[in-house]
Amino acid sequence: MTMEPAGTPLDPMTETALRSLKDIALPPAVSWMPQTWGWAVLAMILALILAAAFLLWLRRYRANAYRREALALLAGVEAKIRDPETRQSGVQDLAVLLKRVALAGWPRTDVASLAGAAWVKFLEAHGDRTNSQALQAVLDDLEYHASKGIGATQPNTEAELIAGAHNWIERHHVSA
After folding, report:
1. Transmembrane residues, as ranges (predicted)?
2. CB 176 within 8 A of CB 160
């Protein structure tokens, strides 16, 4: 196989044949649009399902805004409960916070008058049944203790009290 140098003229017949050649004809580009109406309908159904799922998520997100706000407030109450000097007001603030959360989730007529054992039963009925014993004991006896008795909780019950409140705020069940 010998290659002819670039400067060598070609045979006139070969030159004529090369000039008469046309470039390769490329097919038109394939469209990304669906070719049948079935794919368009499927795309519309999928878009509607996604829109409905987004709207349901948004509705649930907005409905749980009071929970997010209560959990943020619980952080401040937690600091008060952990400090022995402010524990009394912290426990009272915790009781107020739980009542506010309940009022946000249920009608005022069902929640506002609850106190003592009835209040604890309400929390148990609408929680996930894992509320701490410390939370139940403090809320049940809160209105009957003197102010000084509230601050005398045991140090290990502080964490249990806060965890029980956090658990109830996060997981209580509100009927639709």
Report:
1. 37-58
2. no
Collapsed DSSP state (helix, strand, coil) of residue 48 = helix
Q: Would you put residue 33 in left (φ > 0), alpha (ψ -120 to 50) or beta?
A: beta
Q: Which residue has the tokens 């996060």?
A: 170
pTM over 0.70: no
| Residue 85 binned pLDDT confidence (cut-offs 50, 70, 90) | confident
108-124 b/e (C-beta count within 10 Å ≥ 16 → b): eeebeebeeeebbebbe
Cβ proximity of 120 and 102 under 8 Å: no
Distance CA 12, CA 91 (A): 106
